[in-house]
């Protein structure tokens, strides 16, 4: 150990990787010392994921070499990577929903120990890093945040020397983020190096001591995030100056356009969160935010508002005074309500279909893409092309399959498809999840522009920073209950964080205001009975 | 592209394995293949037979394929075919003493309605009580057969039929005209082609066809797009039931010319194979129906010429389905020796990922 203490934990020298038509990595070199937390920055398509996959052995570099603890290594597979001591938490989880946490962990291991032993080890990791997770829960009952913890535990069980984290904080409350950072800092102090990939620049500022910036597959700079501003790093990343979102302060809010009153609905079976008398109103020109940890009824709220779920729903949903609650999805769209759910693949878009067909999915009535039940193929293609153009979606054209687009580009397409229908009310969930800074700012600007034209915009997001930047007012959802709305100006982050953590109702449905639920450790609620 | 190669490979494998199998069973295996799959193609009389058998298979399979696209598994085409035949026969028996060109179209309409009505039972059970349509539609096949037997032996028995359990012969106005004089080729054959073209247009060009495809590919996206789950089930079963019923009355008013207890010949089941062999595409189904019709026609002649057992037809049809399912799986997935890459490989597509990943959500060791 002593001999190698001075060699960097991980060193990349001249790594190149080409795909047909693209150079994903072009002579990338950098080093991560032992015990360091190093950030990898770059827009979507900058080559971060490819680079990380090469380090983790999922893909092989065409050129260049990797040194681990000073020794040149060949990493032919994730198994070899793990054998070296490289752990990874992916942005997209690889979990079997029908299995328990423990079974999923065992499946991800090369040589899983007996069940009891594994459980003991899992509990030990959970305890020592202060992670709350029940090993016997089925994955389909868990929130996104909890699912991520499975992946983290998976990685930690191997006692890694290098931990790669891909966009880990997108689903956490501020308190949970802080807790994760504690975990990571402690790991680092124990000598584990961490390669941290995130778009949230202020988090990188708070956590990382060095950063490598990628653009177009090349290293364009290194910096010490503690000495940079989020803005300067973003500009380095984009290679130009970042456009400010236009000021919303001058906006005049009009009348209430979208009024939801006493909306209650059962949770998605079998373990969903039921909505409990949710009420709020959004004025014309206003962006209203709903913050909260994943799994607190956001998906149910979206489904009830869009009309996908109408069974046993009570309460009223009014758009400009018209009652929508009894209308179908199509009826609500025609009335002017557009929506975009959290999950892009398979919910907001059909990956196996072309963008033109995906335009047809939600825009056919408002944009006249079909009449009398017959599809107007040319109009659908034209509309898709317009969306691609106006939202600078990187795609070969309306015929490109939705599944071939990167996450950020598909999200731009989905948001563009809804916004360009010029809705009176836009309801979106997680509009920028997993989307790079440039695309995210584009999407946010589009929502601001839509609101400026008089639409009412409702944004449901777990990204508190996004809501603070975007919204005029916000409320917090916890266990299906919505808090009082707060003006974003002068809001207390501390209070929002506590509300997100369930300060106004404990995990077991006890009396409100008991305040016993530990903040920042919001548990997924028990099934409503 | 490989998706289109799979049926061809499946048919080739069926021929090969079938030949080996029947050789091992003591028959002339390659002779049997020749007799069943090749010889009928060079015999003009058999060609007529082929078209007449392919027509109902194609019509039923097209209806089923519309539902299969949306993952609605109607296994009850056999029963819907019988009910279609019975409903049309009911009209025929009620109009035995009448004449006019309106009778046959009315029979056809009632055939379609009869099939739909039978398919409405699983649709209703599924949409109101959540009963699995595979089981309910399958079980209704047996009910339909019993209903047929009852009618043949009781209320609908021909009073002048010497107590044979069958109806009276249909009149000229109740029988399908021949489209090629002097052959067996009746109106049902061109109608099958018309049904295929119509279904192709519906699937490619209408919102309903789009709905079925979206539901099959991504059910949640379908809900988001405003396509209700119940409407999908109804459309699927009405298309399947209606077309099976249509095929039923075409058979009754065509080759049979009356209703008899031997009316159900397993077309409703064979059509499932036809639908998959035709890649759920109406035009592909026309081709697949010819292939399956060949097993019927060739299988029959092989019984007399080389003494192959009657079950040989069923064996070939079943092999075709199994080989198709197997090749489909091997087209989509790759065999990996030893331990595969463990979990941890991301399921989603991310930047720079060029190679198409498997369809599975996660790859586990």
TrEMBL record, chain A:
InterPro entries reported for this sequence: AAA+_ATPase (IPR003593), ABC_carbohydrate_import_ATPase (IPR050107), ABC_transporter-like_ATP-bd (IPR003439), ABC_transporter-like_CS (IPR017871), P-loop_NTPase (IPR027417)
Primary residence: membrane
Superkingdom of the organism of origin: Bacteria
Repeat recorded as keyword: yes
Ranges for region Disordered: 504-529
Keywords: ATP-binding, Cell membrane, Membrane, Nucleotide-binding, Repeat, Sugar transport, Translocase, Transport
Membrane-topology descriptor: Peripheral membrane protein
Subcellular localization, as worded in the UniProt entry: Cell membrane
One Pfam family here: ABC_tran
Ranges for domain ABC transporter: 10-241, 252-504
Keyword Membrane: yes
GO terms under cellular component: plasma membrane
GO function terms (MF aspect): ATP binding; ATP hydrolysis activity
Family from the record: Belongs to the ABC transporter superfamily.
Name of the featured protein: ABC transporter ATP-binding protein
Organism: Jiella avicenniae
TrEMBL record, chain B:
A GO molecular-function annotation: transmembrane transporter activity
Location of the protein in the cell: Cell membrane
The entry's keywords: Cell membrane, Membrane, Transmembrane, Transmembrane helix
Pfam families given in the database record: BPD_transp_2
TM spans (from-to): 50-68, 80-96, 102-125, 134-152, 184-203, 224-249, 269-294, 306-326
Keyword Cell membrane carried by entry: yes
CDD domains: TM_PBP1_transp_TpRbsC_like
Listed InterPro entries: ABC_transp_permease
Protein name per Swiss-Prot or TrEMBL: ABC transporter permease
Organism whose genome encodes this protein: Jiella avicenniae
Lineage of producing organism: Bacteria, Pseudomonadati, Pseudomonadota, Alphaproteobacteria, Hyphomicrobiales
């Amino acid at each position: 150990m002593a001999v190698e203490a001075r060699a960097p934990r991980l060193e990349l020298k001249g790594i190149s990787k080409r795909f047909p038509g693209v150079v994903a990595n072009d002579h990338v070199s950098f080093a991560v010392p032992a015990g360091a937390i190093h950030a990898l920055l770059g827009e979507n398509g900058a080559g971060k994921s490819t680079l990380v996959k090469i380090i983790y052995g999922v893909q092989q570099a065409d050129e260049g070499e990797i040194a681990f603890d000073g020794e040149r290594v060949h990493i032919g597979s994730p198994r070899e990577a793990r054998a070296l001591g490289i752990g990874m938490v992916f942005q997209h989880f690889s979990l079997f929903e029908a299995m328990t946490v423990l079974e999923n962990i065992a499946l991800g291991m090369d040589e899983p120990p007996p069940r009891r032993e594994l459980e003991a080890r899992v509990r030990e990791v959970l305890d020592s890093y202060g992670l709350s997770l029940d090993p016997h829960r089925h994955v389909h009952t868990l929130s996104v945040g909890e699912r991520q913890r499975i992946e983290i535990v998976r990685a930690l069980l191997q006692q890694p020397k290098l931990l790669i984290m891909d966009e880990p904080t997108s689903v956490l409350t501020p308190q949970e983020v802080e807790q994760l950072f504690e975990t990571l800092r402690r790991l680092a102090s124990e000598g584990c190096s961490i390669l941290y990939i995130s778009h949230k620049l202020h988090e990188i500022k708070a956590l990382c001591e060095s950063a490598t910036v990628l653009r177009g597959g090349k290293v364009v700079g290194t910096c010490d995030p503690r000495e940079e501003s989020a803005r300067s790093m973003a500009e380095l990343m984009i290679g130009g100056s970042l456009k400010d979102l236009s000021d919303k302060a001058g906006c005049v809010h009009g009348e209430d356009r979208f009024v939801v009153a006493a909306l209650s609905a059962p949770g998605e079976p079998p373990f969903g969160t039921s909505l409990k008398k949710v009420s709020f109103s959004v004025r014309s020109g206003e962006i209203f935010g709903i913050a909260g940890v994943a799994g607190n009824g956001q998906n149910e709220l979206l489904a009830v508002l869009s009309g996908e779920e109408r069974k046993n729903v009570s309460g009223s949903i009014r758009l400009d005074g018209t009652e929508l609650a009894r209308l179908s999805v199509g009826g609500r769209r025609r009335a002017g309500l557009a929506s975009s759910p959290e999950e892009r693949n398979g919910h907001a878009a059909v990956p196996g279909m072309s963008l033109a067909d995906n335009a047809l999915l939600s825009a056919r009535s408002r944009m006249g893409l079909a009449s009398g039940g017959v599809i107007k193929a040319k109009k659908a293609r034209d509309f898709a092309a317009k969306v691609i153009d106006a939202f600078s979606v990187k795609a070969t054209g309306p015929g490109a399959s939705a599944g071939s687009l990167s996450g950020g580009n598909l999200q731009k397409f989905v948001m563009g498809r809804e916004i360009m229908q010029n809705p009176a009310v836009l309801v979106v969930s997680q509009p920028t999840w997993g989307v790079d800074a440039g695309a995210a700012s584009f999407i946010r600007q589009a929502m601001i522009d839509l609101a400026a034209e008089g639409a009412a915009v409702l944004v449901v997001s777990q990204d508190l920073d996004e809501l603070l930047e975007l919204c005029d007012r916000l409320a917090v959802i916890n266990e299906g209950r919505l808090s009082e709305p707060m003006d974003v100006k002068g809001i207390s982050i501390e209070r929002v964080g506590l509300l997100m953590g369930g300060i106004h109702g404990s995990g077991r449905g006890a009396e409100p205001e008991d305040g016993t639920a530990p903040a920042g450790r919001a548990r997924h609620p028990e099934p409503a009975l | 592209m490989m998706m289109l190669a799979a049926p061809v490979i499946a048919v080739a494998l069926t021929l090969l394995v079938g030949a080996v199998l029947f050789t091992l069973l003591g028959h002339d295996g390659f002779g049997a293949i020749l007799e069943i799959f090749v010889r009928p193609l060079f015999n003009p009389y058999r060609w007529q037979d082929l078209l007449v058998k392919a027509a109902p298979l194609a019509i039923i399979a097209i209806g089923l394929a519309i539902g299969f696209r949306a993952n609605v598994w109607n296994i009850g085409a056999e029963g819907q075919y019988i009910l279609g035949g019975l409903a049309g026969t009911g009209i025929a028996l009620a109009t035995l003493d009448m004449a006019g060109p309106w009778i046959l179209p009315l029979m056809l309409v009632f055939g379609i309605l009869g099939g739909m009505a039978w398919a409405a039972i699983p649709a209703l059970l599924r949409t109101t009580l959540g009963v699995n349509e595979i089981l309910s539609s399958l079980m209704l096949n047996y009910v339909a057969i019993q209903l047929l037997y009852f009618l043949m032996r009781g209320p609908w028995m021909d009073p002048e039929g010497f107590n044979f359990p069958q109806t009276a012969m249909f009149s000229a106005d109740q029988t399908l005209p021949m489209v090629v004089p002097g052959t067996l080729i009746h109106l049902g054959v061109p109608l099958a082609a018309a049904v295929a073209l119509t279904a192709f247009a519906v699937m490619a060009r209408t919102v309903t066809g789009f709905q079925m495809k979206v539901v099959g590919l991504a059910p949640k996206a379908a809900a988001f797009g405003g396509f209700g789950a119940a409407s999908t089930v109804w459309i699927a079963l009405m298309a399947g039931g209606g077309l099976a019923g249509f095929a039923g009355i075409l058979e009754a008013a065509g080759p049979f010319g009356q209703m008899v207890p031997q009316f159900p010949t397993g077309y409703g089941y064979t059509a499932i194979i036809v639908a998959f062999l035709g890649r759920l595409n109406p035009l592909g189904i026309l081709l697949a129906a010819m292939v399956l019709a060949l097993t019927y026609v060739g299988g029959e002649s092989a019984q007399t010429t080389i003494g192959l057992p009657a079950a040989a037809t069923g064996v070939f049809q079943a092999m075709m389905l199994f080989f198709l399912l197997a090749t489909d799986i091997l087209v989509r997935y790759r065999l990996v020796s030893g331990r595969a890459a463990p979990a941890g490989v991301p399921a989603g597509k991310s930047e720079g990922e060029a190679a198409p990943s498997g369809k599975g959500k996660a790859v586990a060791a």
